[in-house]
Amino acid sequence: MPDTLTLTDNRTGKKYEIPIVNGVIKAMDLRQIKVSDEDFGLMSYDPAFMNTASCHSKITFIDGDKGILRYRGYPIEQLAEKSNYLEVAYLIIHGELPTKSQFEEWRYNITHHTMLHENTKKFMDGFHHDAHPMGMLVSTVGALSTFYPEARNIHDAEARKLQMYRLIGKMPTIAAYAYRHRMGLPYVYPDNELSYTGNFLNMLFKMAEPKYEPSPTLERALDILFILHADHEQNCSANAMRSIGSSQADPFVSTAGAAAALYGPLHGGANEQVLRMLDEIGTKDKVPEFIKRVKAGEGRLMGFGHRIYKNYDPRAKIIKETADQVFEVTGRNPQLDIALELERIALQDEYFIKRKLYPNVDFYSGIIYQAMGFPTDAFTVLFAIPRTSGWIAQWQELLLDPEQKIARPRQVYLGAPKRDFAPMERRR
Ligand code: ACO
């Protein structure tokens, strides 16, 4: 059986044979299909990329129907159980798990790029006292571009490596400074003796004690959450990273753009919206009434549904298990009961079953973050920090792919045909 697709253009009666490679046809192969020599050629129309692969990738595999997620071939469940975030970040970016010495070098380099230029503090001081942490993060990571002009050398592998250390190292520091600024607390410098997440907790929560000692349970729980959020193939923010990167912009401004895409309530902003929704519902007995309103089209059940997963999001399963460990330290978050009731009712309801709507990664993460003491509007920042390694991996893969060029979709123009300019006095 040949791996081709035979198409007949009924407008002309002509037949075309189009190769199928890796289960896809090339959209450019449609261009030869024309009704006349002047015809531009056939295009495909795909708003929101519902059925268009924009790249070849070797980073993350998802089977949305079966609820499978793998980074570089490794199942997410194994990584969450046996690995740590920095090792996973190395894996995602380099394609292989590090040896002991590779890991030590990686950890050392990231740890030694956690500090921010002192001017960054002044920059952040300029934000209003109630500025949204994601707004501060997006602007500050973009501003790093002005501190490291050599980041423009995107084709230089050594320069790229340095920016990767800086981005992964400095994102938690920016996030922590944004939090401390909101709270009116002094900024805390990184502590290189602590782990990646231990140091992040230090920069967030250290008060007058000479040495901050993170709770090992919370440190590990945050590390697991970071592993689960590290990459998720061609989602809205990864696509933004690739799109901006395709113009050869530097990785700091590209990351700012990706983080901006993450900020929206339909993407990484959903974890914040879940908590607002739980607050609005208030008590468990109000859940059926809320579900009724969702089904009537008055809002969405936030943290439910996914473009790719038409089954339980494997990340949500692991987060639910992690929640119990966190609550042993922090005490149980009462919002959990409302969330469990929402899930119980929704999973039995025809509306959600028919549309294959299941809890996604954001459904339970916010409940854990809240129990750990994070304010609701900081949740998306907690998504952006680990996703930075995924964005970087996607960006580097794009740069090294000879088939990639500046991203530039086509459009189907449906506007006015040519017409002549009318002076204002003649307009009606
Ligand atoms: N609550 C109620 N109904 C929903 C929900 C939801 N959360 N999600 C989808 N639907 C319904 C839609 O109304 C639509 O119904 P219809 O066919 O009767 O019109 C149907 O399910 C399909 O929904 P679409 O919006 O077409 O699905 P799409 O793939 O475009 O959207 C998305 C996916 C954005 C995640 C959507 O499910 C959603 O808005 N969920 C809530 C927000 C959320 O949790 N986002 C986080 C996603 S995970 C992440 O980005 C990290």
Largest sheet: 3 strands, antiparallel
Intertermini distance: 63 Å
Bound molecules: acetyl coenzyme *A
CATH classification, class level of the largest domain: Mainly Alpha
What percentage of residues falls in helices of 4 or more residues?
Answer: 40-55%
Explain the overall architecture:
The protein has 428 residues and is mainly α. The protein folds into two domains: 68-268 and 376-399, Citrate Synthase, domain 1, CATH 1.10.580.10; 281-371, Cytochrome p450-Terp, domain 2, CATH 1.10.230.10. Helices cover 50% and strands 5% of the residues. The protein contains 17 helices and five strands. The chain has helices at 76-82, 85-94, 100-111, 118-125, 133-147, 157-183, 196-205, 216-228, 236-245, 251-263, 270-281, 287-295, 314-330, 335-348, 350-354, 362-371, 379-399, and strands spanning 4-9, 14-19, 60-63, 68-71, 74-75. Strands 3-4-5 form a three-stranded antiparallel beta sheet. A two-stranded antiparallel sheet has the order 1-2. Strand 1 and strand 2 (14-19) form a beta hairpin. Helix 2 runs parallel beside helix 8, helix 2 packs parallel to helix 17 and helix 9 (236-245) packs antiparallel against helix 10. The chain is globular, with a radius of gyration of 24 Å. The termini are far apart. The model has no long low-confidence stretch (mean pLDDT 96). It binds acetyl coenzyme *A.
